[in-house]
Amino acid sequence: ALDLRGSLELLEAVAHLGKRLVPRLKTAPPCFDGLVRLHLHARGALGNLHVEPQPSMAAGPGFDILLRVRAVGLNFRDILNVLGEYPGDPGPPGGDAAGTVVQADAETLYAVHAVAFGAVHAPLASFASSASHFLAPKPLALSPEQVCTVPSTWSTVHAALERAKQRAGSTTIVHAAAGGVGLQAAEYGHWLSATLVGTAGRPHKHAQLRRVGVLGSSSSRNGTASAMGGAVLLGAARLDAALNSLSLDFIAASFALLREGGVFSEIGKRAIWSLSRHAASAAATVYCAIALDADMALEPMWMHRTLALLATRADAAVVTSLPLISFDMEVQHTRAFRTLQGGLTTGKVVIRIAARRAGSGGVHMVTGGTSGLGLLTGRWLAQRGVRQLVLASRGGMLSRGAADEWRGGPGGAAM
Fold it and tell me: Rounded to two decimals, what is the model's pTM?
């Protein structure tokens, strides 16, 4: 029987297996016909990310490449950015991306329609800008979604292991080793014939580390347990290097396991040791902070050389894509960020960006378009990529305020 008590306004209902099922209204995801971007209205919460029309598709100042973005690989840095917990001003979220070149300065080596990957400014959008020295041609062996899992992770590992002078037979501990950097370090370490041990949280992450050949793993949630587990794995030996992204007692535990002259590479951003604390507590070891954004600013061509090397090794099957889970930007962006925040996956979270036209090259006419709904419709068209627009009316004139607003055209539209 269908119980209708308290449902005087009920219009439709279905009885199924003793349950009353009724239709519910919910907010539909936004539907955009033109260019879009993921905009962060204010730092502090993942819910502050919203999809909105992208006003233009021109390369920004200081950039010589414009990409039609196809995929973006998220990093934990992006979570800290959105939550307002990243030091300094990190700019818009996102960075690792792959896309098709749609505009390039004559001095660059990139042709229109080429597919490139690397560090891209504000890539969570239909179109985004980059500098040619922060990009490399996409390797043939990897898809756009796959290749955007590796720029920051592989470059970080490459920098850390190069500076630590790791070689065959070296032993390195990688904290949070089931994440992107950790899995990349495992692959890189095996290529070097080095030995890797790691830390991880959930049981399925420890299983993942065993599958990729990590010698052994301990807890990434309890520093004391991690230190004891590491000591058991090493026996009488000591570590040659540590790659750390954790904080608090994990740092001290890692230094305790390092040999004299061993290298501690810090890639974390919160609660990290200062140089003075290292000098006071572990002076017999080497402390090295890895910050890709700083390295890119100081030596831009280093990033280009690193990405080019990455692409060469990918085509030689030395570097492979990280495990990934992908989400559509327009309807699943919040879920993507929450998945990464919750540490629910191994590998990388990737956001796909659907291909969209930048608007018709023809002329659009709006009758009754100089005021009211017609004027709003014209503005809506311009924001979605229309470049030539006619606003027609009996009077044929815009008000002074509307004319000032439309001078130059919203989104670059010509009237």
Answer: 0.77
